[in-house]
Amino acid sequence: MMKEITTEELKKRLESGEDLELIDVREDEEVEGGMIPEAKHIRMSEIPEKLAEIDKEKETIFICRSGGRSGRVCEYLEEQGYDVVNMVGGMLEWEGNTKPKSELA
Known about the structure:
- The protein has helices at residues 7-15, 28-32, 68-79, 90-93, and strands at residues 3-6, 21-24, 40-41, 60-63, 84-88.
- By secondary structure, the chain is α/β, with parallel strands linked by helices.
- It has a 5-stranded parallel beta sheet with strand order 1-5-4-2-3.
């Protein structure tokens, strides 16, 4: 059973100062429209070649537009032994801060 987090739960955890691993798997033009500032951007198609950038020992929360793509990434990474959580509802339901990726670099 895949672990999930709601957008509200994630927002509360970030506001409380928790150090979380967040990865946004959307495409470049999507993250330019706004992403959670604490998140790293790794496109879904790049996940298999960028496994070294994901800490296998640390819980990692995956984000996309609605929760579908991030759910598929979580399924894939779970099979590889990663500790993953899918943000259900995705950025469509996110009510916290966002910034265009170009402002986060």
